[in-house]
Amino acid sequence: MDLDDADIRILDSLQEDGRLTNQALSEKVGLSTSPCWRRVRQLEEAGVIQNYRATLDRRQIGLGVLAFIRVKIDSHSESEAEEFSRRILELDEVVACYSIAGDADFLVQVVAKDLDSYSDFAMSVIRRLPGIKEMQTTFVLKELKPFQGFPVGLGL
Hints:
Blueprint: H1 5-16, H2 22-29, H3 33-45, E1 65-73, H4 78-89, E2 94-99, E3 106-112, H5 115-126, E4 132-139
Antiparallel strand pairs: 1-3, 1-4, 2-3
Helix pairs in contact: 1-2, 2-3
């Protein structure tokens, strides 16, 4: 989908506050309400806007640990990668997972209540997933810039 300046303003505004009413959104992006509503619907139907959700402070809900686990799997067969992917999707502690290039196969973003909870999860769940050859954890000490949305204008 080709995005113009108005689409970019809409997307930036909705990433900042997904609860904006159509009236408030149209005023913020400089469109009248009907064209603004139509553009939002087009962006939803095209799959550019996939969902609306609240951003939570993980610490406020008791998740004090944020970590990234770099995982290497034994074999690079398609079936083993699919099995790993299937199993990782079932884990509530995993908030994001990426298949990556480089010296690891997957980068797994994990949250936990505390270090003991993370240790239990890593050793009794992640380490026991089939095909795990190696895993290395990096703990986040401070979130300098947590994910808040995509820079829409960079893609054009």
